[in-house]
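STRUCTURE REQUEST FORM
Protein name: Amino acid ABC transporter permease
Source organism: Tistrella arctica
Requested output: C-alpha cells
Priority: standard
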Amino acid sequence: MTNGNRRPGPSAPVAVRPSRSFLNDAGVRAVLFQILAMAMVIAVGWFLVDNTLYNLASRNIQTGFDYLTRESGFAIGETLIPYSATSTYATALWVGVLNTLKVSLIGIVFATLIGVVIGVARLSSNWLLARLATIYVESLRNVPVLLQLFFWYGLITEVLPSPRQAMQPIEGVFLSNRGFKMPVPADHAAWWAALVAFLVAVVIVRVLMIRANRIQERTGERPRTLLPGLGLLIGLPLVAWAVFGAPTALDTPALKGFNFVGGLSVSPEFAALTLGLTLYTAAFIAETVRSGIQAVGKGQWEAAAALGLKPGVTMRLIILPQALRVIVPPTTSQFLNLTKNSSLAVAIGYPDIVSVANTTLNQTGQAIENIALIMLAYLTVSLTISAFMNWYNKRIALVER
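Status: completed
Returned output:
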C-alpha cells in the first residue's frame, strides 16, 4: 500500500507576461505621431503668420479687409450687375467673380457638346470625318491655350473691319473689331413669364421621366415621354408669352458714331476667351469620350445589331450610358482645368476675378488679402464643380446585382 500523503512534485512554471510600454502599441504610436505632426504644422503656420504681420506692421502696410467697403474708383468694361466707379471694392470683386463664372459655365456647356461630337466622329467609319476630327484634336491639344487666346483675340481685333464697315452675315447681326452685335427681344414682362414657364416645364418633364422609369421597372413597358416633353418645353412658354401680351418688338443694334448701340453686345475679349477655352478643352473631352466608347465591349454593339437597332440608337441608348462611367471622372478634371484656365483672361484684357483683384491690389497695396480672395474664389468654384460631378457620377454608376 502506498501512503496517501504524497510529496508534492515540482510545480509547473507560471508564465509571466512581460511588461509592455504603451509606446509599443502601434495604435498609440499612430495617434501620437499625428498629434506631433499637427503640432508642427500649427507651429510653422503660426510662425509664418506672426512673421508676416510683424513685417507688414514694420513697413506701415495696412492689413485686414476694411478696404472692401471703400470706393473702388475704377470702371469695369463688362458687368452682369450694376456697377460704377463709385461702387465699393467688394462690388468690383463680385463683378469679377460673376464674369469668371459666366465664361466658365458657357465654356463648360459648349466644350462638352463639341467634345462629344468630335469624340464620336473620331470613331466614325467615314474616313474623311474621322481624319478631320483627328486633325482637330491633335492640333488644338498641342498648342498652348494662351497662344490660342492671342490668336482668337488678334483675329477678331485685327482681321475684322471697323464698326462702320462691319460684316453683316444675317440681318441685324454685325461683326466688327469692336465685337459682335445682335438683336434681342425688347424688355417685356412676357419674356420673363416665358422663362419661368420654361423652368416649370423642365421640372414637370423631369417628374414625367422619373415616373416613366418606375413604370418601366414595374411592368417592362415605358410610357412615351419624348413628344409630351417637347410639347411642355415648347408649348408652356408659348402660352405664357401669349397670355402676357405676345410682344414681338426687338432691340436691334444701330450704328451711332463710331460704335453700335442697342441689342446684345459680345466684346472681343469675351469672344476670344470663350472660343479659346471652349475649343481647347473640347479637344481633351473628345479624347475622353473616344476612350470611354472604346472601353465598352464589342459584344454590346453586336447584341444591338442582332436586335436590329440602328447605329445611332445603339450609340445613344446602349453605348454612351455605359461609357459614362469611364468618361465622367476625367471630364470633371477638364471642367476644372477650363475654370482655372479662365485666369488667363488677364492677358487679353477681360475683367475676370484675377484682373479685377490685380487692379484692386495696385490701388490698395494689400496683396495678401487680394490673393487670398482669388484663391478662395477659385477654390469655391472648383469644389462646387467637383461635388456636382461626383454626385452625378454616383448617380449613373452601374449597380452590381
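Reviewer notes: The mean pLDDT is 86. The chain has eleven helices and seven strands.
Form closed.
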